[in-house]
Amino acid sequence: MQIIAHRGASGDYPENTLLAMEQAILQGADAIEIDVFAVDSELIVIHDHHLARTTNGSGSIYQHSLAQLQQLDAGSGQRIPTLWQVLQLLALTPLWLNIELKGDNTVAPLLSLLKRAERELQFDVNRLLISSFNHHLLAELNRQSSALKLGALTASLPIDYAAFAHQLQAYSVHCDVSFINQAFVDDAKARGLKVYVYTVDQADDIKRMQQYGVEGIFSNYPAKARQLLNAQP
Ligand code: G3P
Ligand code: MG
Fold first, then answer.
1. Which of 110, 112, 218, 227 is 20 to 30 A from residue 140's alpha carbon, by CA?
2. Separation of CA 143 and ligand 2 centre (Å)
3. pTM for this one?
4. Domains in the chain, ordered, with CATH?
5. Would you say the CB of residue 33 lies under 6 angstroms from ligand 1?
Protein backbone atom coordinates (compact mmCIF):
# COMPACT_ATOMS: atom_id res chain seq x y z
CA MET A 1 0.00 0.00 0.00
CA GLN A 2 1.51 3.33 -1.05
CA ILE A 3 1.80 6.37 1.20
CA ILE A 4 0.95 9.73 -0.30
CA ALA A 5 1.97 12.74 1.78
CA HIS A 6 -1.21 14.80 2.10
CA ARG A 7 -0.37 18.47 1.37
CA GLY A 8 3.23 17.32 1.99
CA ALA A 9 4.18 16.16 5.48
CA SER A 10 1.49 18.56 6.65
CA GLY A 11 1.04 17.12 10.15
CA ASP A 12 4.42 18.51 11.20
CA TYR A 13 5.12 21.28 8.66
CA PRO A 14 3.03 24.04 7.08
CA GLU A 15 0.73 22.40 4.55
CA ASN A 16 1.32 22.74 0.81
CA THR A 17 4.73 24.41 1.27
CA LEU A 18 8.03 23.34 -0.27
CA LEU A 19 9.27 22.63 3.28
CA ALA A 20 6.42 20.14 3.85
CA MET A 21 7.19 18.51 0.50
CA GLU A 22 10.94 18.26 1.18
CA GLN A 23 10.12 16.64 4.51
CA ALA A 24 7.73 14.20 2.83
CA ILE A 25 10.57 13.15 0.52
CA LEU A 26 12.87 12.69 3.54
CA GLN A 27 10.15 10.72 5.36
CA GLY A 28 10.04 8.18 2.53
CA ALA A 29 6.63 8.98 1.05
CA ASP A 30 5.86 7.32 -2.29
CA ALA A 31 4.06 10.41 -3.55
CA ILE A 32 2.88 13.89 -2.60
CA GLU A 33 -0.59 15.37 -2.90
CA ILE A 34 -1.05 19.12 -3.35
CA ASP A 35 -3.99 21.45 -3.99
CA VAL A 36 -3.85 24.09 -6.70
CA PHE A 37 -5.68 27.24 -7.75
CA ALA A 38 -4.93 29.55 -10.68
CA VAL A 39 -4.16 33.25 -10.17
CA ASP A 40 -3.00 35.42 -13.09
CA SER A 41 -2.93 32.12 -15.09
CA GLU A 42 -0.23 30.79 -12.74
CA LEU A 43 -0.96 27.69 -10.68
CA ILE A 44 -0.32 28.19 -6.99
CA VAL A 45 -0.30 25.56 -4.26
CA ILE A 46 -2.81 26.25 -1.51
CA HIS A 47 -5.88 24.44 -0.17
CA ASP A 48 -8.37 27.25 0.56
CA HIS A 49 -9.16 30.20 -1.67
CA HIS A 50 -9.36 32.27 1.51
CA LEU A 51 -5.94 33.09 2.85
CA ALA A 52 -6.50 33.40 6.60
CA ARG A 53 -6.20 29.76 7.72
CA THR A 54 -2.79 29.01 6.17
CA THR A 55 -1.10 32.39 5.65
CA ASN A 56 -0.73 35.80 7.28
CA GLY A 57 -2.92 37.26 4.54
CA SER A 58 -6.66 37.83 4.46
CA GLY A 59 -9.45 37.79 1.93
CA SER A 60 -9.52 35.63 -1.17
CA ILE A 61 -6.58 34.71 -3.39
CA TYR A 62 -8.61 36.19 -6.25
CA GLN A 63 -8.41 39.66 -4.64
CA HIS A 64 -4.60 39.59 -4.92
CA SER A 65 -2.01 39.53 -7.67
CA LEU A 66 0.42 36.67 -7.89
CA ALA A 67 3.20 39.01 -6.75
CA GLN A 68 1.20 39.99 -3.64
CA LEU A 69 0.44 36.36 -2.80
CA GLN A 70 4.10 35.47 -3.04
CA GLN A 71 4.93 38.02 -0.31
CA LEU A 72 2.77 36.19 2.26
CA ASP A 73 4.04 33.91 4.98
CA ALA A 74 2.53 30.44 4.60
CA GLY A 75 4.05 29.27 7.92
CA SER A 76 7.64 28.98 9.22
CA GLY A 77 8.63 31.72 6.77
CA GLN A 78 7.56 29.62 3.79
CA ARG A 79 5.97 31.19 0.70
CA ILE A 80 2.97 29.92 -1.22
CA PRO A 81 4.69 27.78 -3.86
CA THR A 82 3.88 27.69 -7.54
CA LEU A 83 3.20 24.35 -9.17
CA TRP A 84 6.29 25.01 -11.29
CA GLN A 85 8.47 25.08 -8.14
CA VAL A 86 6.95 21.78 -7.01
CA LEU A 87 7.64 20.17 -10.37
CA GLN A 88 11.23 21.43 -10.21
CA LEU A 89 11.61 19.85 -6.76
CA LEU A 90 10.02 16.53 -7.71
CA ALA A 91 11.88 16.27 -11.01
CA LEU A 92 14.95 15.41 -8.91
CA THR A 93 13.20 12.54 -7.09
CA PRO A 94 11.45 9.25 -7.90
CA LEU A 95 8.19 10.33 -6.19
CA TRP A 96 4.96 10.76 -8.11
CA LEU A 97 2.69 13.75 -7.67
CA ASN A 98 -1.06 14.07 -7.23
CA ILE A 99 -2.22 17.52 -8.29
CA GLU A 100 -5.70 18.23 -6.96
CA LEU A 101 -7.44 20.96 -8.96
CA LYS A 102 -9.40 23.26 -6.67
CA GLY A 103 -10.00 26.31 -8.86
CA ASP A 104 -12.35 26.03 -11.82
CA ASN A 105 -9.95 27.97 -14.09
CA THR A 106 -7.07 25.52 -13.76
CA VAL A 107 -7.26 23.29 -16.86
CA ALA A 108 -5.65 25.60 -19.44
CA PRO A 109 -2.79 26.75 -17.16
CA LEU A 110 -2.14 23.13 -16.16
CA LEU A 111 -1.88 21.87 -19.72
CA SER A 112 0.48 24.65 -20.73
CA LEU A 113 2.63 24.18 -17.61
CA LEU A 114 2.91 20.44 -18.20
CA LYS A 115 4.08 21.01 -21.77
CA ARG A 116 6.76 23.32 -20.37
CA ALA A 117 7.73 20.75 -17.71
CA GLU A 118 8.12 18.02 -20.32
CA ARG A 119 10.27 20.34 -22.42
CA GLU A 120 12.41 22.05 -19.77
CA LEU A 121 12.54 19.53 -16.92
CA GLN A 122 12.12 16.34 -18.97
CA PHE A 123 9.30 15.69 -16.51
CA ASP A 124 7.50 12.43 -17.30
CA VAL A 125 3.77 13.19 -17.08
CA ASN A 126 3.16 9.52 -16.23
CA ARG A 127 4.42 10.51 -12.77
CA LEU A 128 1.39 12.77 -12.38
CA LEU A 129 -2.13 12.01 -11.25
CA ILE A 130 -4.60 14.87 -11.67
CA SER A 131 -7.62 14.77 -9.37
CA SER A 132 -10.60 16.92 -8.51
CA PHE A 133 -13.94 16.96 -6.75
CA ASN A 134 -15.00 18.99 -9.80
CA HIS A 135 -15.72 16.20 -12.25
CA HIS A 136 -16.43 18.66 -15.05
CA LEU A 137 -12.75 19.68 -14.92
CA LEU A 138 -11.70 16.04 -15.22
CA ALA A 139 -13.99 15.54 -18.22
CA GLU A 140 -12.50 18.66 -19.81
CA LEU A 141 -8.96 17.40 -19.17
CA ASN A 142 -9.84 14.05 -20.67
CA ARG A 143 -11.16 15.77 -23.80
CA GLN A 144 -8.03 17.90 -24.14
CA SER A 145 -5.31 15.48 -23.05
CA SER A 146 -6.50 11.89 -22.86
CA ALA A 147 -3.04 10.60 -21.91
CA LEU A 148 -3.11 12.23 -18.46
CA LYS A 149 -4.00 9.99 -15.52
CA LEU A 150 -7.13 11.25 -13.76
CA GLY A 151 -8.30 10.68 -10.19
CA ALA A 152 -12.00 11.13 -9.45
CA LEU A 153 -12.57 12.41 -5.94
CA THR A 154 -15.61 11.75 -3.81
CA ALA A 155 -16.52 12.59 -0.24
CA SER A 156 -19.51 10.22 -0.34
CA LEU A 157 -20.48 6.59 -0.84
CA PRO A 158 -22.34 6.87 -4.17
CA ILE A 159 -25.36 4.64 -4.75
CA ASP A 160 -23.67 3.10 -7.79
CA TYR A 161 -20.26 3.03 -6.12
CA ALA A 162 -17.39 3.81 -8.53
CA ALA A 163 -19.53 4.14 -11.67
CA PHE A 164 -18.89 7.91 -11.79
CA ALA A 165 -15.12 7.36 -11.98
CA HIS A 166 -15.50 4.75 -14.69
CA GLN A 167 -17.70 7.16 -16.65
CA LEU A 168 -14.98 9.81 -16.39
CA GLN A 169 -12.45 7.30 -17.75
CA ALA A 170 -10.42 7.90 -14.62
CA TYR A 171 -7.32 5.97 -13.65
CA SER A 172 -8.22 6.02 -9.97
CA VAL A 173 -10.94 6.89 -7.49
CA HIS A 174 -10.09 8.85 -4.33
CA CYS A 175 -12.39 8.29 -1.37
CA ASP A 176 -13.02 9.67 2.08
CA VAL A 177 -11.94 7.29 4.84
CA SER A 178 -15.22 8.08 6.64
CA PHE A 179 -17.36 6.51 3.91
CA ILE A 180 -15.32 3.89 2.08
CA ASN A 181 -16.26 0.23 2.53
CA GLN A 182 -15.36 -3.15 1.05
CA ALA A 183 -18.24 -3.05 -1.44
CA PHE A 184 -16.96 0.22 -2.89
CA VAL A 185 -13.39 -1.10 -3.19
CA ASP A 186 -14.59 -4.30 -4.85
CA ASP A 187 -16.71 -2.35 -7.31
CA ALA A 188 -13.83 0.02 -8.16
CA LYS A 189 -11.42 -2.86 -8.68
CA ALA A 190 -13.90 -4.71 -10.90
CA ARG A 191 -13.95 -1.57 -13.04
CA GLY A 192 -10.13 -1.54 -13.25
CA LEU A 193 -9.75 1.54 -11.04
CA LYS A 194 -7.06 2.10 -8.43
CA VAL A 195 -8.34 3.20 -5.01
CA TYR A 196 -6.69 5.88 -2.88
CA VAL A 197 -8.15 6.98 0.46
CA TYR A 198 -7.87 10.26 2.38
CA THR A 199 -6.99 11.12 5.13
CA VAL A 200 -5.60 8.08 6.92
CA ASP A 201 -3.41 8.68 9.96
CA GLN A 202 -4.75 6.31 12.60
CA ALA A 203 -3.52 2.73 13.12
CA ASP A 204 -7.02 1.19 12.96
CA ASP A 205 -7.82 2.99 9.71
CA ILE A 206 -4.48 1.97 8.19
CA LYS A 207 -5.22 -1.65 9.05
CA ARG A 208 -8.75 -1.44 7.65
CA MET A 209 -7.51 0.08 4.37
CA GLN A 210 -4.96 -2.69 4.05
CA GLN A 211 -7.70 -5.27 4.58
CA TYR A 212 -9.85 -3.61 1.92
CA GLY A 213 -6.91 -3.88 -0.47
CA VAL A 214 -6.66 -0.21 -1.48
CA GLU A 215 -3.61 0.91 -3.48
CA GLY A 216 -2.70 3.89 -1.34
CA ILE A 217 -3.52 6.23 1.51
CA PHE A 218 -3.11 9.99 1.90
CA SER A 219 -1.46 10.71 5.24
CA ASN A 220 -0.47 13.93 6.99
CA TYR A 221 2.29 11.96 8.75
CA PRO A 222 4.01 9.81 6.11
CA ALA A 223 6.82 8.52 8.38
CA LYS A 224 4.37 7.51 11.10
CA ALA A 225 2.04 5.91 8.55
CA ARG A 226 4.97 3.89 7.17
CA GLN A 227 5.90 2.73 10.70
CA LEU A 228 2.31 1.69 11.44
CA LEU A 229 2.06 -0.09 8.10
CA ASN A 230 5.30 -1.97 8.67
CA ALA A 231 4.07 -2.99 12.13
CA GLN A 232 0.95 -4.68 10.64
CA PRO A 233 1.07 -8.49 10.87
O1 G3P B 1 -6.96 14.62 -2.55
C2 G3P B 1 -7.34 14.07 -1.33
C3 G3P B 1 -7.79 15.12 -0.36
O4 G3P B 1 -6.82 16.11 -0.30
C5 G3P B 1 -9.12 15.72 -0.73
O6 G3P B 1 -9.61 16.61 0.22
O7 G3P B 1 -10.01 18.83 1.16
O8 G3P B 1 -7.93 17.61 1.76
O9 G3P B 1 -8.21 18.57 -0.52
P10 G3P B 1 -8.91 17.96 0.69
MG1 MG C 1 -6.40 17.88 -1.40
1. 218
2. 23
3. 0.98
4. 2-231 (3.20.20.190)
5. yes
